[in-house]
Design a protein that fits this description.
The chain is of the alpha/beta class. It is about 40% helix and about 15% strand.
Length: about 400
């Protein structure tokens, strides 16, 4: 019998699949493609950061060499200091690992928690790369349905915990749903995970674009937070460093020591220039980042304000926040057929809900994700006109 490889155990990368829908399609100058498929900035870092990065390239010899596996020590210290202040808790540099993007932080967390055959609870709709990594690691994806609110239920999660469950994963603000999980909901999942002796992994890639003020949860105020919590973060969205691959994993030192084994065998160390850029950004771009957040919140408002035109045509807005709006469509076809049709008929590229759901969950056939971070208020209006 032919053996199935790790990569064959999962599906093709969704964003790459969606790009193939563009092949052979011509877009006119007066109706260019509106691409709302990928949740990543398309602009380079701001000019002051580019100048700082150029100085690093020319003047910092260490930026061109191998560095510590767990990351650049000054960046680890800066994360610890800013996290302690932002969350009102105690985070030390020894709690911080810098990774080659947040996807690698998730992979490292799973590597230090799970063996093949173990189980991880993943709310659906899920971030597809999380599911892909679980598949390739031989870890069972225990799908937790969130229903029309897109908010996971701790009691339902408790009923799905098995002897092989090693972690619960939350993403807030959520990808793909856009919803911001209330602090008391996050705390309930933390208490559930602790009671069962499993980890709570919280991916806060989009925390810089949360509409709320103050800390989004109080988990770091618990003096023993690190016995349960693993937090993931990405510098890519905040400072437009997507191509430099810089993320973070915040956890107890013992877990980071296990993650170090994984990281050392995959990349040896994170991108050195990217790490120094992230540090410079944290120390110098606070006001600029506040402006970026205000712009994203304005685009979110444009989605909510303009959506009644789509609602009149049978669309439903399930969630909206950070970079995303998650919607249901009114058409008599599954979303994986509608999405390429929208490319041809409306010059709009977005991802179907089937990419964020297990095949057995048919809700994804009515759902679509709109990643609106790269279209401004006028672009949102044009998008809605085409969809109408």
């Amino acid at each position: 019998m032919k053996t199935i490889s790790a990569s064959q155990s999962t599906f093709a990368p969704p964003v790459m699949e969606a790009r193939r829908w563009l092949q052979g399609v011509q877009f006119s100058p007066d109706r260019p493609l509106i691409n709302v498929s990928q949740a990543a900035p398309v602009d380079p870092p701001p000019a002051p950061m580019l100048r700082a990065m150029a100085d690093t390239v020319m003047m910092d010899a260490g930026a061109h060499l191998y560095g510590p596996v767990l990351g650049y020590d000054p960046l680890r210290a800066e994360v610890a200091q800013q996290w302690s202040r932002a969350y009102g808790g105690q985070v030390t540099p020894e709690n911080v690992a810098i990774t080659s993007g947040c996807n690698q932080a998730f992979a490292a967390a799973i590597a230090c928690l799970c063996a093949a055959g173990d189980d991880v609870i993943l709310p659906v709709p899920y971030y597809f790369n999380h599911r892909m990594w679980l598949d390739m690691a031989g870890v069972h994806c225990n799908a937790l349905d969130t229903g029309p609110t897109l908010l996971p239920d701790p009691e339902q999660a408790a009923a799905q915990i098995t002897p092989r469950t090693r972690a619960i994963v939350l993403v807030t603000p959520n990808n793909p749903g856009g919803v911001e999980y209330p602090g008391d909901l996050v705390r309930a999942f933390f208490d559930l995970a602790r009671a069962h002796g499993i980890a709570l992994i919280i991916d806060e890639t989009y925390r810089d674009f949360d509409s709320r003020t103050g800390p989004p949860h109080d988990l770091f105020t618990d003096p023993d937070w690190s016995d349960t919590l693993i937090q993931l973060y990405s510098f890519s969205k905040a400072y437009r460093l997507t191509g430099h691959r810089v993320g973070a994993m915040i956890a107890c030192p013992a877990r980071l020591a296990e993650a170090e084994k994984f990281l050392d065998t995959v990349t040896i160390c994170p991108n050195q220039i990217g790490q120094r850029a992230a540090l410079w950004g944290m120390q110098n771009l606070g006001q600029w980042l506040a402006g970026e957040r205000a712009e994203i919140l304005d685009r979110r408002a444009a989605i909510s304000e303009g959506f009644p035109a789509l609602a009149a045509k049978g669309w439903t807005l399930l969630g909206c926040g950070a970079y995303f709006a998650y919607v249901t469509h009114p058409y008599d076809m599954p979303s994986n057929e509608l999405a390429p049709k929208l490319v041809r008929d409306a010059a709009v590229l977005m991802l179907p809900g089937t990419m964020f759901m297990p095949p057995e969950n048919t809700a994804g056939q009515r759902q679509m994700r709109i990643a609106f971070a790269n279209i401004d208020r006028a672009g949102v209006g044009e998008l809605f006109e085409r969809l109408v």
